[in-house]
Protein backbone atom coordinates (compact mmCIF):
# COMPACT_ATOMS: atom_id res chain seq x y z
CA UNK A 1 0.00 0.00 0.00
CA UNK A 2 2.80 2.42 0.88
CA UNK A 3 4.59 1.73 -2.42
CA UNK A 4 1.41 2.75 -4.28
CA UNK A 5 2.06 6.34 -3.14
CA UNK A 6 3.49 8.64 -5.85
CA UNK A 7 5.86 10.10 -3.25
CA UNK A 8 8.59 7.96 -1.72
CA UNK A 9 8.46 7.94 2.07
CA UNK A 10 11.61 7.85 4.21
CA UNK A 11 12.48 4.28 5.18
CA UNK A 12 12.62 5.28 8.85
CA UNK A 13 8.98 6.44 8.67
CA UNK A 14 7.95 3.17 7.04
CA UNK A 15 9.72 1.11 9.71
CA UNK A 16 8.26 3.17 12.59
CA UNK A 17 4.77 2.77 11.12
CA UNK A 18 5.17 -1.00 10.81
CA UNK A 19 6.57 -1.31 14.35
CA UNK A 20 3.73 0.79 15.82
CA UNK A 21 1.15 -1.20 13.87
CA UNK A 22 2.48 -4.58 15.04
CA UNK A 23 2.89 -3.46 18.67
CA UNK A 24 -0.58 -1.90 18.77
CA UNK A 25 -2.20 -4.96 17.23
CA UNK A 26 -0.34 -7.21 19.68
CA UNK A 27 -1.44 -5.16 22.70
CA UNK A 28 -5.02 -5.19 21.44
CA UNK A 29 -5.07 -8.95 20.82
CA UNK A 30 -3.63 -9.72 24.25
CA UNK A 31 -6.21 -7.44 25.89
CA UNK A 32 -9.01 -9.00 23.84
CA UNK A 33 -7.99 -12.53 24.81
CA UNK A 34 -8.35 -11.58 28.48
CA UNK A 35 -11.60 -9.64 27.89
CA UNK A 36 -13.22 -12.54 26.04
CA UNK A 37 -12.41 -14.90 28.90
CA UNK A 38 -13.93 -12.37 31.29
CA UNK A 39 -17.10 -12.22 29.17
CA UNK A 40 -17.42 -16.02 29.40
CA UNK A 41 -17.19 -15.58 33.18
CA UNK A 42 -19.99 -13.02 33.28
CA UNK A 43 -18.21 -9.75 32.50
CA UNK A 44 -20.66 -7.19 31.10
CA UNK A 45 -19.03 -5.04 28.45
CA UNK A 46 -21.68 -2.33 28.62
CA UNK A 47 -20.59 -1.51 32.19
CA UNK A 48 -17.37 0.16 33.27
CA UNK A 49 -14.65 -1.99 34.82
CA UNK A 50 -15.48 -1.02 38.42
CA UNK A 51 -19.25 -1.42 37.91
CA UNK A 52 -18.98 -5.04 36.76
CA UNK A 53 -20.28 -7.52 39.38
CA UNK A 54 -17.43 -10.00 38.87
CA UNK A 55 -14.85 -7.20 39.24
CA UNK A 56 -16.43 -5.68 42.36
CA UNK A 57 -15.89 -8.91 44.30
CA UNK A 58 -12.19 -9.21 43.52
CA UNK A 59 -9.83 -9.52 46.47
CA UNK A 60 -7.52 -7.76 47.04
CA UNK A 61 -9.10 -4.59 45.64
CA UNK A 62 -5.82 -3.58 44.00
CA UNK A 63 -6.61 -6.18 41.33
CA UNK A 64 -9.35 -3.83 40.09
CA UNK A 65 -6.67 -1.26 39.30
CA UNK A 66 -4.86 -3.91 37.26
CA UNK A 67 -7.98 -4.63 35.19
CA UNK A 68 -8.54 -0.91 34.64
CA UNK A 69 -4.94 -0.64 33.44
CA UNK A 70 -5.53 -3.59 31.11
CA UNK A 71 -8.64 -1.84 29.75
CA UNK A 72 -6.62 1.32 29.13
CA UNK A 73 -3.84 -0.57 27.34
CA UNK A 74 -6.36 -2.41 25.16
CA UNK A 75 -8.94 0.28 24.36
CA UNK A 76 -6.76 3.39 24.22
CA UNK A 77 -3.05 2.72 23.86
CA UNK A 78 -3.36 -0.43 21.74
CA UNK A 79 -6.02 1.02 19.46
CA UNK A 80 -4.09 4.26 18.92
CA UNK A 81 -0.85 2.46 18.07
CA UNK A 82 -2.74 0.10 15.75
CA UNK A 83 -5.12 2.40 13.90
CA UNK A 84 -3.06 5.59 13.47
CA UNK A 85 -0.50 3.84 11.19
CA UNK A 86 -3.34 1.87 9.54
CA UNK A 87 -5.31 4.95 8.48
CA UNK A 88 -2.12 6.84 7.63
CA UNK A 89 -1.12 4.06 5.24
CA UNK A 90 -4.64 3.99 3.78
CA UNK A 91 -4.41 7.71 3.07
CA UNK A 92 -0.94 7.35 1.55
CA UNK A 93 -2.32 4.61 -0.68
CA UNK A 94 -5.27 6.88 -1.59
CA UNK A 95 -2.91 9.61 -2.83
CA UNK A 96 -1.80 7.26 -5.61
CA UNK A 97 -5.34 6.46 -6.78
CA UNK A 98 -5.76 9.32 -9.27
CA UNK A 99 -5.70 9.25 -13.04
CA UNK A 100 -6.19 11.75 -15.91
CA UNK A 101 -8.13 9.11 -17.90
CA UNK A 102 -11.91 9.26 -17.39
CA UNK A 103 -12.38 5.66 -18.57
CA UNK A 104 -10.31 4.39 -15.61
CA UNK A 105 -12.68 6.09 -13.19
CA UNK A 106 -15.21 3.27 -13.29
CA UNK A 107 -15.68 0.38 -10.91
CA UNK A 108 -16.37 -3.14 -12.14
CA UNK A 109 -19.43 -5.05 -10.93
CA UNK A 110 -17.30 -7.17 -8.57
CA UNK A 111 -16.10 -4.01 -6.80
CA UNK A 112 -19.68 -2.79 -6.37
CA UNK A 113 -20.64 -6.10 -4.78
CA UNK A 114 -17.67 -5.97 -2.41
CA UNK A 115 -18.39 -2.42 -1.31
CA UNK A 116 -21.00 -3.57 1.21
CA UNK A 117 -18.68 -5.96 3.11
CA UNK A 118 -15.89 -3.37 2.92
CA UNK A 119 -18.11 -0.69 4.46
CA UNK A 120 -19.26 -3.04 7.21
CA UNK A 121 -15.62 -3.82 7.97
CA UNK A 122 -14.75 -0.14 8.40
CA UNK A 123 -17.96 0.42 10.40
CA UNK A 124 -16.89 -2.29 12.82
CA UNK A 125 -13.35 -0.88 13.08
CA UNK A 126 -14.65 2.60 13.88
CA UNK A 127 -17.38 1.58 16.35
CA UNK A 128 -15.61 -1.24 18.16
CA UNK A 129 -12.25 0.53 18.10
CA UNK A 130 -13.77 3.87 19.19
CA UNK A 131 -11.71 5.71 16.57
CA UNK A 132 -14.36 7.96 15.01
CA UNK A 133 -12.18 11.09 15.26
CA UNK A 134 -9.30 9.37 13.47
CA UNK A 135 -11.68 8.02 10.81
CA UNK A 136 -13.47 11.34 10.18
CA UNK A 137 -10.20 13.28 9.92
CA UNK A 138 -8.94 10.73 7.39
CA UNK A 139 -12.19 11.05 5.45
CA UNK A 140 -11.97 14.86 5.45
CA UNK A 141 -8.36 14.64 4.25
CA UNK A 142 -9.49 12.33 1.43
CA UNK A 143 -12.25 14.77 0.43
CA UNK A 144 -9.79 17.68 0.42
CA UNK A 145 -7.36 15.69 -1.72
CA UNK A 146 -10.10 14.79 -4.21
CA UNK A 147 -11.05 18.47 -4.63
CA UNK A 148 -7.39 19.49 -4.92
CA UNK A 149 -6.64 16.87 -7.58
CA UNK A 150 -9.80 17.75 -9.48
CA UNK A 151 -8.39 21.22 -10.08
CA UNK A 152 -5.40 19.55 -11.74
CA UNK A 153 -7.69 17.56 -14.03
CA UNK A 154 -7.20 14.28 -12.14
CA UNK A 155 -10.00 11.93 -11.07
CA UNK A 156 -10.14 8.89 -8.83
CA UNK A 157 -9.46 5.55 -10.46
CA UNK A 158 -11.49 2.43 -9.65
CA UNK A 159 -9.38 1.65 -6.55
CA UNK A 160 -9.75 5.17 -5.20
CA UNK A 161 -13.49 5.19 -5.86
CA UNK A 162 -13.87 1.88 -4.02
CA UNK A 163 -12.10 3.21 -0.93
CA UNK A 164 -13.80 6.61 -1.04
CA UNK A 165 -17.31 5.22 -1.48
CA UNK A 166 -16.64 2.64 1.24
CA UNK A 167 -15.82 5.47 3.64
CA UNK A 168 -19.02 7.33 2.64
CA UNK A 169 -21.20 4.26 3.25
CA UNK A 170 -19.36 3.67 6.52
CA UNK A 171 -20.33 7.16 7.67
CA UNK A 172 -23.97 6.44 6.83
CA UNK A 173 -23.84 3.15 8.74
CA UNK A 174 -22.37 4.90 11.77
CA UNK A 175 -25.12 7.54 11.62
CA UNK A 176 -27.83 4.82 11.50
CA UNK A 177 -26.15 2.99 14.40
CA UNK A 178 -26.04 6.12 16.56
CA UNK A 179 -29.64 7.14 15.79
CA UNK A 180 -30.86 3.62 16.57
CA UNK A 181 -29.21 3.58 20.02
CA UNK A 182 -29.62 7.29 20.74
CA UNK A 183 -32.08 6.84 23.64
CA UNK A 184 -30.37 3.85 25.27
CA UNK A 185 -29.78 5.13 28.82
CA UNK A 186 -27.38 2.35 29.84
CA UNK A 187 -25.11 2.79 26.83
CA UNK A 188 -25.33 6.56 27.28
CA UNK A 189 -23.87 6.07 30.75
CA UNK A 190 -21.03 3.93 29.35
CA UNK A 191 -20.23 6.47 26.60
CA UNK A 192 -20.91 9.89 28.19
CA UNK A 193 -18.76 12.02 25.89
CA UNK A 194 -19.80 14.42 23.17
CA UNK A 195 -19.21 11.76 20.51
CA UNK A 196 -21.66 8.97 21.33
CA UNK A 197 -20.82 5.83 19.35
CA UNK A 198 -21.51 2.59 21.30
CA UNK A 199 -19.37 -0.48 20.73
CA UNK A 200 -21.07 -3.51 19.13
CA UNK A 201 -19.69 -5.71 21.94
CA UNK A 202 -21.35 -3.47 24.53
CA UNK A 203 -24.64 -3.71 22.64
CA UNK A 204 -24.26 -7.49 22.48
CA UNK A 205 -23.63 -8.02 26.19
CA UNK A 206 -26.46 -5.60 27.09
CA UNK A 207 -29.21 -6.81 24.78
CA UNK A 208 -28.34 -9.91 22.76
CA UNK A 209 -26.67 -11.83 25.59
CA UNK A 210 -29.72 -11.37 27.83
CA UNK A 211 -31.96 -12.49 24.96
CA UNK A 212 -29.96 -15.69 24.53
CA UNK A 213 -30.11 -16.34 28.28
CA UNK A 214 -33.90 -15.87 28.30
CA UNK A 215 -34.29 -18.34 25.40
CA UNK A 216 -32.12 -20.92 27.14
CA UNK A 217 -34.17 -20.62 30.33
CA UNK A 218 -37.32 -21.45 28.33
Structure description:
- 71% of the residues lie in helices and 2% in strands.
- The mean pLDDT is 85.
- The protein is elongated and about 65 Å long.
- The protein folds into two domains: 1-96, no CATH class; 102-217, no CATH class.
- It has helices at 11-40, 53-56, 62-94, 109-129, 132-151, 158-180, 185-190, 200-217; strands at residues 98-99, 155-156.
- With 218 residues, the protein is mainly α.
- The longest helix has 33 residues, at 62-94.
- It contains eight helices and two strands, in the order αααβααβααα.
- The chain has a two-stranded antiparallel sheet with strand order 1-2.
- Helix 4 (109-129) packs across helix 6 (158-180).
- This is CLN6 protein.
- The chain crosses the membrane at residues 12-31, 82-101, 131-148, 160-182.
What is the gist of this entry?
With 218 residues, the protein is an all-alpha fold. The protein contains eight helices and two strands.
Amino acid sequence: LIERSPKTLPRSMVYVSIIMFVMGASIHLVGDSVNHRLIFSGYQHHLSVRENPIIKNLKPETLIDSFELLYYYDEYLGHSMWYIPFFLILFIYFTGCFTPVEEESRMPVAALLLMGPSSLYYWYLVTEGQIFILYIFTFFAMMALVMHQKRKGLVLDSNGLFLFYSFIITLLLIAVWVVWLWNDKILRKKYPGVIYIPEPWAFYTLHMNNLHAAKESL
